[in-house]
Amino acid sequence: MRILYVITKASWGGAQQYVYDLATAAKEAGHEVAVAYGEGGELVNRLEAGGIRTIALAGLARDVGLICEWRAFGALRELLRRERPDIVHLNSSKAGFTGALAARMAGVSKIIFTAHGWAFNEARPWWQRIVIYKLAWLTIFLSHTTICVSQAIRQDTRWMPFVRKKLVVVYNGVREPSYKTHDDARRALWPEHESGYWIGMLSELHPTKRVEDAVEALTLIHAEYPDTRLIVLGEGAERGKLEALIKARGLEDAVRLAGFVSLGDSYLPAFDLFLHTSRSESFSLAVAEAGLAGLPVVATEVGGIPEIVADGKTGLLIPPCAPRAIASAIESLIRDLGRAHKMGAALRASVHDRFNQDRMVNETLALYER
């Protein structure tokens, strides 16, 4: 089959990793694969290194505007006319609606849309959320199948008429990387402070991720546990704000914003605990990756995360935007390392069985042929 994947941003995050995994697997299965994107980044580098063709699309940017939308639609129609794919697999809200409309008009036989999250759940003015909700409905309606990466994502569409039968849940999947050793990972991430109790995060520095809550939580426990450190692997627009907060709290020697780290999950052995503080999440590959590494996890009880972590059994769930709850959960695991170890081992077994990458790939490729 000729398969065209479309995504708005080709930086690196959960949706980009998903596209990379599927495109790579489809190519290995013998299909002809290409990936179209709006804004370049790490995903393009990795795809091209793997011999997968990439195509830049004018106008397909995250920002919304009539001129940009028209340019993106025109570029997609021309691309579909030229490529004539059997399958178009759309990712992200912007690429989803524009791509589904263009693919329908081009007569593409199979249009797949993956909902990695719904933009109508974001903090926006009410009228914007209504418009985005209607566009999400249109995207599902125009697509032949919509993949939800968690039951929570599917549940968010419960009030949408006429489209429920088009929805199918296929959980994201992770594969065990080639881990670095504990000492090598720490030496690479923060050689000046290799000792102590390390709390790790794999997170974009984005407002939705609420990394500031992790910093505030560390402020609350640092006096009692001065050897505790927070290391964040990821980059984003919130860096300046977070650096100012770290300085204001006097935590320059306790918090490190390590920036984007290629193959970040291979550094997970550096950590004693994994923290995820997002106020909104569709599934969270980062939590699944931490679980596969056998780390005890403290994560917010939002979106699909409770489908990965069973509170009190395979990790601890806390409410979003609650630094005191984060601090309390961290303290409880520092005080009971045996319990933390058991939780990490139980989460590893669960993730290995339920959220492995091979299952995700096989279920998705089966949808292409259905």
List keywords for this structure.
single chain, 370 residues, alpha/beta, Rossmann fold, seven-stranded parallel sheet, six-stranded parallel sheet, 13 strands, globular
Summary, kept brief:
The chain is an alpha/beta fold and 370 residues long.
Description:
The protein is an alpha/beta fold and 370 residues long. 43% of the residues lie in helices and 18% in strands. Strand 6, helix 6 and strand 7 form a beta-alpha-beta unit. It contains 13 helices and 13 strands. It has two domains: 186 residues, Glycogen Phosphorylase B (Rossmann fold), CATH 3.40.50.2000; 173 residues, 3-Layer(aba) Sandwich (Rossmann fold), CATH 3.40.50.2000. The strands form two sheets. Strands 3-2-1-4-5-6-7 form a seven-stranded parallel β-sheet, sandwiched between helices. The chain has a six-stranded parallel β-sheet with strand order 10-9-8-11-12-13, sandwiched between helices. Helix 3 packs across helix 4 and helix 8 crosses helix 11. It is globular.
